[in-house]
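Proteins fold reproducibly. Next comes an illustrative record:
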Amino acid sequence: MPFGVRIFAVYFLFVGLASWFVLSRVMDEIRPGVRQSTEETLVDTANLLAEILRDQVAAGNLAQSHLPALLEAYGRRRPEATIWGHTKSQVNHRIYVTDANGRVLLDSSGRALGQDYSRWNDVYLTLRGDYGARSTREEPDNPDSSVMYVAAPILDGERIIGVVSVAKPNRTLQPYIERSQRRLAWLGAGLLGLGLMVGALLSWWLGRSLGKLTDYAKAASAGRRVKPPRLPSGELGQLAAAVEQMRNELEGRDYVERYVHTLTHELKSPLAAIHGAAELLDSDMPAVQRQRFVNNIQRETARLQQLSERLLHLAQVEQRQGLEERVGVPLGPLLEELLEAQGARITKARLRVELALEPALQLCGERFLLRQALANLLDNALDFTAPAGLIRFSAERREQRVELRLYNVGEAIPRYALGRLTERFYSLPRPDGGHKSTGLGLNFVQEVAELHGGDLAIDNVEGGVEVRLLLPGA
């Protein structure tokens, strides 16, 4: 089953069940809600009639009053009122009055005059001082024939002298209940249909987008040249970009070849120098010249060792998925330690070093990696700072991070090289002879910064170059 169909099936099941549950509950509440509202109206009507009938009942002349004629005339009225699409052509209230013993004194229907109604709950409860109401079927086997009765006491001071009951058949409410249920059913069906349409479109779009990604991944794994699918921005767009990036990295043969060629070139130069010096050392030569070739071998060997060590460190950092520890590393003592280690070079070049740090600044991360990164930055600055020049460290806290700036007086970096300084094996000639470094130092610093969730930036500033390293603070 396609992924989009499965999503729609789950969506349909969830929305369908939720809609059915809500609609059924609301449908069930319509009937009692309408009847409760009607009962509340009957209570008001009964109490109003109780006040109107009080004097006649107290005087005992209810049957001789004009009220029986009024009730008879009331029963003959034809309202012809259109209520919510239903025409009401007759009145439906039945009104009867009983004395303090429950005997019917007046009945608008004429059926129960003189009968004993004291056993019916509406009269019985009201005569006891309670709220009297009942619902009785006119036809015992027909639930739709039930009639709602609500009574109110007729009071003479504090004494109950009679009861007036108002009745209304529930069948007269049924048209309004059914109309409400029909309207609600149509509205619910419309909303359900709209929801399912939206769900179908969403499922189709999601399935189609994932299908494009699947087809693209299959084509890429098969080695076919295909363009990445065009997807809207968002998670799917990011996923498509990530797949494309992964493919480029996996299939980046040009990059791999360039990497190998550059590495071969870097190794070839010191190996050729060592090989040539070794051949010349086999012949007779003055001691001074022999020492010069020995120094060349030592220097190139150190270069090879430095290259291999930096490659090893870089490979270890690139393979990392996270930090092994996060500890507070005091920045001031760490920089002082690095400057002391480079004290001979600093003294020999007569360099001035300034530290402008906020007190008690601490970095958060792996101390070894942070030390290696700062050591690479300092080593790079020492290479490019002219004799008697200035190197200045400054740092300040920026919210949860620490921004470290390393400034050195020197020539500006060519514009074409600014964007390539962190590439592997890319290096600029040093001012003291034109030789290049391994080209791995700044790349290692960038990897360490990214591993810590930081950033590295290098720019030309007035009088020199400034490196900005952003790292998490402790």
